[in-house]
């Protein structure tokens, strides 16, 4: 006997989905192929897990709350399709967790705890080749930020990092009343479809990430002031590299497109891909 569920715990970001229509729409939006393994992060009381088990060949669900793990383990004990892992996903080695159970690609479906959603996204972004697609419930503003471009005010670091590796779209939005307890914010389902290779060459990715973070470091500062003293041997080299890339140092970081960040990253690293980029048509050419 496992008794009743414990009350929702705020510290674990527990807002459980209770709206069956939304749950069904998430599974449809995930587009799980028959037999495909699914990673669920934070199964909670199992509402999504039950539907995923029906759609997928295999579901591995990682839950940090041990009381919920006890309930879920009891419920799915006889179901070979579902495995409940008692762990903090942020401490998991995803290669070990997933590849030991089924070969890639895996699909990720999760109603994420909002307090750690950016950290989870970075964890997943670092292991993109493992995944065929990610369908994630996020705070609406965060989902919209990730899907937006340089001409939109929400555009930020996560937009650049996610769009380097994935096609991104917001599938639909979800009202607070669809959860128990209702969160204070609206939510949205974000879909990320990993590209076979990064959209642009960026050279060394940790360097690229540092460059993007510094460029967005202070939205009131010009790119020149954000980057000065870093990334180039001296001011002369920094200015000539920006000139060579056709990027005005007086612009703000948030006006740079992903392609411009990639171009600048390669140029600052003296990467030969930078030369090649001048002649290669953008993979984004023609997209709206
Ligand atoms: N999937 C359920 C649903 O849709 O009703 C629950 C979603 S609830 C927003 C987030 C879930 O993630 C909770 O069950 C919570 O305990 C779990 N969680 C929070 N932090 C976690 C972590 N670091 N690792 C794994 N699970 C976590």
What is the strand and helix layout of this fold?
Blueprint: E1 16-17, H1 20-30, E2 37-41, H2 47-55, E3 58-63, H3 66-75, E4 82-86, H4 94-99, E5 106-111, H5 117-125, E6 131-139, H6 140-147, H7 157-165, E7 166-174, E8 179-180, E9 187-194, H8 205-215, H9 223-227, H10 235-244, H11 258-268, H12 272-277
Parallel strand pairs: 2-3, 2-5, 3-4, 5-6
Antiparallel strand pairs: 1-8, 6-9, 7-9
Helix pairs in contact: 8-11
Bound molecules: S-adenosylmethionine.
Molecular structure report:
- By secondary structure, the protein is α/β, with parallel strands linked by helices.
- The protein has 2 domains: about 180 residues, Vaccinia Virus protein VP39 (Rossmann fold), CATH 3.40.50; about 70 residues, Helicase, Ruva Protein, domain 3 (Orthogonal Bundle).
- About 35% of the residues lie in helices and about 20% in strands.
- It is built from 12 helices and 9 strands.
- A 7-stranded mixed β-sheet has the order 4-3-2-5-6-9-7.
- Strand 3, helix 3 and strand 4 form a beta-alpha-beta unit.
- Helix 8 crosses helix 11.
- The longest helix is centred in the first third of the chain and has 11 residues.
- The protein binds S-adenosylmethionine.
- The site of S-adenosylmethionine has 24 residues, from strand 1, helix 2 and strand 3.
């Amino acid at each position: 006997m496992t008794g009743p569920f414990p009350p929702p715990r705020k510290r674990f970001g527990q807002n459980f989905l209770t709206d069956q229509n939304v749950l069904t729409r998430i599974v449809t939006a995930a587009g799980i192929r028959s037999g495909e393994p699914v990673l669920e992060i934070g199964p909670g009381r199992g509402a999504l897990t039950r539907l995923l088990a029906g759609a997928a060949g295999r579901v591995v669900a990682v839950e940090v709350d041990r009381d919920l793990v006890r309930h879920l383990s009891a419920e799915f004990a006889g179901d070979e399709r579902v495995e409940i892992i008692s762990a903090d996903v942020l401490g998991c080695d995803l290669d070990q967790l997933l590849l030991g159970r089924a070969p890639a690609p895996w699909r990720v479906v999760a109603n994420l705890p909002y307090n750690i959603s950016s950290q989870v996204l970075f964890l997943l972004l670092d292991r993109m080749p493992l995944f065929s697609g990610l369908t994630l419930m996020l705070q609406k503003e965060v989902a919209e930020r990730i899907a937006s471009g340089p001409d939109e005010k929400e555009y930020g670091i996560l937009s650049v990092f996610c769009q380097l590796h994935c096609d991104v779209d917001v599938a639909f939005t979800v009202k607070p009343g669809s959860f128990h307890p209702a969160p204070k914010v609206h939510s949205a389902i974000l879909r990320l479809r990993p590209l076979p290779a990064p959209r642009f060459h960026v050279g060394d990715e940790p360097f690229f990430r540092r460059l993007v973070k510094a460029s967005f470091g202070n939205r009131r500062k010009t790119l020149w002031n954000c980057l000065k003293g870093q990334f180039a041997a001296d001011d002369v080299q920094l200015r000539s590299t920006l000139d060579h890339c056709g990027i005005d140092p007086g612009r703000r970081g948030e006006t740079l497109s992903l392609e411009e960040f990639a171009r600048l990253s390669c140029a600052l690293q003296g990467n030969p891909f930078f030369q090649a980029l001048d002649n290669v048509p953008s993979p984004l050419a023609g997209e709206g």
